[in-house]
Amino acid sequence: MSIQTINQNKDLKGLSLIAAHSHISGLGLDDNLQPREQSSQGMVGQFRARKAAGVILKMVENGSIAGRAVLIAGPPSTGKTAIAMGLSQSLGKDVPFTAIAGSEIFSLELSKTEALTQAFRKSIGVKIKEETELIEGEVVEIQIDRSITGGHKQGKLTIKTTDMETIYELGNKMIDGLTSEKVLAGDVISIDKSSGKITKLGRSFTRSRDYDAMGPDTKFVQCPEGELQTRKTVVHTVSLHEIDVINSRSQGFLALFSGDTGEIRSEVRDQINTKVAEWKEEGKAEIVPGVLFIDEVHMLDIESFSFINRALEDEFAPIVIMATNRGVTKTRGTNYKSPHGLPLDLLDRSIIIQTSSYNEEEIKQIISIRAQEEEVDLHPDALNLLTKIGQETSLRYASNLISVSNQLALKRRSDVVELEDINRSYILFLDSARSVAYLQEFSDQYIDDTGNVNIGGHTSKVEAAPAATASNGDAMDTSA
Ligand SMILES: Nc1ncnc2c1ncn2[C@@H]1O[C@H](COP(=O)(O)OP(=O)(O)O)[C@@H](O)[C@H]1O
Ligand SMILES: [Mg+2]
Questions:
Q1: Highest mean pLDDT range out of 13-27, 256-270, 332-346, 453-467?
Q2: Does the global pTM surpass 0.85?
Q3: Who has the most CB within 10 Å: 149, 153, 229, 317?
Q4: Which reaction is recorded as catalysed by this protein (predicted)?
Q5: Among 395, 399, 403, 432, which is best to mutate for testing ligand 1, by the most ligand atoms less than 8 A from CB?
Q6: What is the pLDDT of residue 98?
Q7: Of the candidates 238, 266, 233, 267, which has an alpha carbon nearest to the alpha carbon of residue 253?
Q8: CATH class of segment(s) 129-234
Q9: 322 touches ligand 1 (CB under 6 Å)
């Protein structure tokens, strides 16, 4: 079969919600991969973990090491996700990075293994070299004849280099392409002969006195020399998953944008693997192992873990980075306890990065960076109180109070968040510890996990029992 690798509307994918980490633009390392003392790229403290992440970054950049597992372990709100995001920002644009949360694989309409397979294959890049034939020249004239009935269009394109000039017949598709690119006489364009894709390279210098067809950002280029037809090697990187989707006949590449890819047949994947291996042999393609980040990895169950174990052995495997805040806890789907809830065989092949709690100064810095990012002006007293709250509850809770307090400040028409705004939002919104204390006190008014609720003194049964929520590491729901 012939395998397609070009996905023409690439920029539509990869919208992700990482607003909580929007202040982070890298790991904040210097040229020797040492974490900078001062906050850098939005990163504060956590030096050991950042340095370790820098080593991983180097491994990924070298491209030769794949199929490794890294576990970032540490208490909640210690920057595990933040470090993974920083790492992803530091990777070159051609290195794929995929982030999923452990619970996600249960909520898709796919089987667990299919969801994981897709995540793995999204994290493997294939860099493909292709020779294409291009027509490159300056447009002399475009002549389009529209038939009166509308439907069919015909036309001629006259195009030249400094050495020659040719006339091409135009069909419907080319006319549409020229129109949508707003190509005019005097533009220098390039046409990909196989796909018909038209790219405007700029306006010819000979037209630089031609004020009519110029915007403020018009780029001027030389009229090409020599032959109109040229050969060029273009290199593009796609993920194995994209190749899967484009070539799985029932879906086509449109499925990439709807996200509705469904299960992909294993025969399709086998064929693609064979083909890609062939291209690699022939020097036409290069495998770029990327990074798969699985946040809250303790949400996975034993079947998913053994899948990961196996997938790491695969010929095309990414570096898998996992994050967890669990200590010794049960692995879902088993009765065994193990460190971080990871089965021992997977734990054994993982290298572990520890994150630790922040000190006062670091919390203060992170909160003020967050406030800057959210364009909130904090009074020094307000910042001090938020820092104290951050130390006593969690960093995440404290940073959530920034925007809430800002709303309260705006309501009383102040541009600056003062102490009283923090105080009021602290009372309005509970942190998890106070919420737990409240629940213990008033538990009889809530639906319990057998579905009973106590309303006005008598107990009634609620239909579907809600899933048990985990309040500590041991009380995981293992029934899924
Ligand atoms: N070292 C750090 N530098 C800058 N911001 C941080 C740092 N660590 C955590 N944060 C920010 O604090 C919040 C909580 O951190 P997060 O990474 O979500 O913690 P975890 O994943 O360990 O529970 C996030 O908004 C995160 O961006
Ligand atoms: Mg996290």
A1: 332-346
A2: no
A3: 317
A4: ATP + H2O = ADP + phosphate + H(+)
A5: 395
A6: 92
A7: 238
A8: mainly beta
A9: no
